[in-house]
């Protein structure tokens, strides 16, 4: 550890309120930029990077304070890793720090996925690119299955929580219940279950600190105290910034000759407030709407977009940028398709991530009041259990449209099913999926490494077909 990595805390410890910049803003900006380039591997990897840099290495924030912030962010809709960055940035440098930390956290991924989306639109129909996607799409199935296993092992600590997960899966898979209804029902079920059986095992262990005292200790208070005036200001400014771009494109929709911008702006603004449980949970909802309702993507393209998002830094929910890009490119109105695609991509990115700043900066001063709120904790536990069923539904959706060429829809009363046509199964896709599952579960490979191997297998299959 260098002298630049740790500054001695003020005399008397860190229990007093923190005010102004705990560390120089320029130094914090450099640290957040370095973190943003390492945020691969989903929220677990992203949180681990922040833990290492901010808690273990630089000693800017205490371990229990870091976990307290994480628990609060888990209560919110949206990507918890980015919200954790906003929260800790706010702790260290106030509102400016939160804006810088949250913005830098997503910037590399926005740029990377914008480029990859353009490449997909320009070259996605070529045999070579198709072969690469034929390899990575089965890998995505394995990644989502692993997410079901990982989240389920952590979340389903009581038979009642297992029942909530199964109920969420059945509601989505068999009855087509809207995703927000499933989230709300899971929260209510978790709350009711906790009142009946007590503790559901949702607590977390804080763990101790090793090394010099952190600059923001576990019991330090922030100088920005909650007030009605501050809260009103944050809400008004946040809502204006959130919806102003959507209002502008809605007013221009007639002259642009397309409503795709309005549809995407409103849809993804709504999706931003129901993304409890991480990106995998809401992707089932996004995939169903983008494919079946709006027609922005073909069924198999959602899997390809997720594969691209897995290869970029930042939150996985960035896949919505790909959805917007492709959808607007195909429905540009009077605009050039490339201009429409870029505008839609940036608009959807804006309405997806601006709410994160609003939620965190509004609620952060009140977070201590939430710490011991058992009702909220129980509702969150129920949502987390429901998310297991939601992710399992996503795995089924991706499997149907990757492993088979044809599916058929069956409806009988309230039951609505999409069933496989078994004689259209793809042996190459099945084989690559098996390899991906083995690498992730048996060898413990990361998603990025698994995607690379499967892309190579898809390419090798293509080359072998040319040789024959």
UniProtKB/TrEMBL annotation:
Give the stretches traversing the membrane.
99-123, 129-149, 161-193, 232-253, 265-286, 306-326, 338-364, 376-400, 448-467
**What membrane topology is given?**
Multi-pass membrane protein
The name on file for this protein is Chromate transporter
Protein source organism: Knoellia remsis
Give the CC-aspect GO terms: plasma membrane
Classify the main location.
Answer: membrane
Query: Which keywords belong to this entry?
Result: Cell membrane, Membrane, Transmembrane, Transmembrane helix
Q: Per the record, which residues fall in region Disordered?
A: 1-20
Pfam families membership = Chromate_transp (PF02417)
Q: Which GO terms describe its molecular function?
A: chromate transmembrane transporter activity
InterPro entries membership: Chr_Tranpt_l_chain (IPR014047), Chromate_transpt (IPR003370)
Location relative to the cell: Cell membrane
Family classification: Belongs to the chromate ion transporter (CHR) (TC 2.A.51) family.
